[in-house]
């Protein structure tokens, strides 16, 4: 059985609240799970200790049994120091979009024109 440690959504519309659960990967997101391992409340401030509450011992037990955490749960575990921080690569994240590239080119052209205009009077006075 393929096990996952993932989030199961609860709460009402626009007021999410998640349970961190160990479940069979074939079950639906909010469906049947084996054990509740903690909670996550995204509405709380990021520095609030009640934002993420985990039973670390049980999470380590399930990971020892072969359960794989999802990306979001893995980030919670990295922040708690349970698993080693994984290197992530998103090379397109730092690349500016089309509009930003055009703005940068226009700004560079304007700066070059201003520098050229400033250099021209300096050459005439030198003669």
TrEMBL record:
Recorded family membership: Belongs to the bacterial ribosomal protein bS16 family.
Source species taxonomy: Bacteria, Pseudomonadati, Pseudomonadota, Alphaproteobacteria, Rhodobacterales
Transmembrane region(s): none
GO terms, molecular function: structural constituent of ribosome
Keywords: Ribonucleoprotein, Ribosomal protein
HAMAP family reported in the protein's UniProt record: Ribosomal_bS16
Name the record gives this protein: Small ribosomal subunit protein bS16
NCBIfam families registered for this protein in UniProt: S16 (TIGR00002)
PANTHER family referenced in this protein's UniProt entry, alphabetically: 30S RIBOSOMAL PROTEIN S16 (PTHR12919), SMALL RIBOSOMAL SUBUNIT PROTEIN BS16M (PTHR12919:SF20)
Gene Ontology terms: biological process: translation
Keyword Ribosomal protein in record: yes
Cellular component per GO, a single term: small ribosomal subunit
Classification via Pfam families: Ribosomal_S16
InterPro entries: Ribosomal_bS16 (IPR000307), Ribosomal_bS16_dom_sf (IPR023803)
Name of the gene this protein is made from: rpsP
């Amino acid at each position: 059985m393929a096990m996952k440690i993932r989030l199961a959504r609860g709460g009402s519309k626009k007021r999410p609240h998640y349970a961190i659960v160990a479940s069979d990967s074939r079950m639906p997101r909010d469906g049947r799970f084996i054990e509740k391992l903690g909670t996550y409340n995204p509405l709380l401030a990021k520095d609030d200790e009640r934002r993420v509450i985990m039973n670390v011992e049980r999470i380590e037990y399930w990971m020892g049994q072969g359960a794989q955490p999802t990306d979001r749960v893995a980030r919670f575990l990295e922040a708690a120091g349970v698993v080693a921080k994984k290197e992530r690569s998103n090379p397109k994240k730092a690349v500016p979009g089309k509009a930003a590239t055009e703005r940068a080119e226009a700004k560079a052209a304007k700066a070059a024109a201003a520098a050229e205009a400033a250099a021209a009077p300096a050459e005439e006075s030198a003669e």
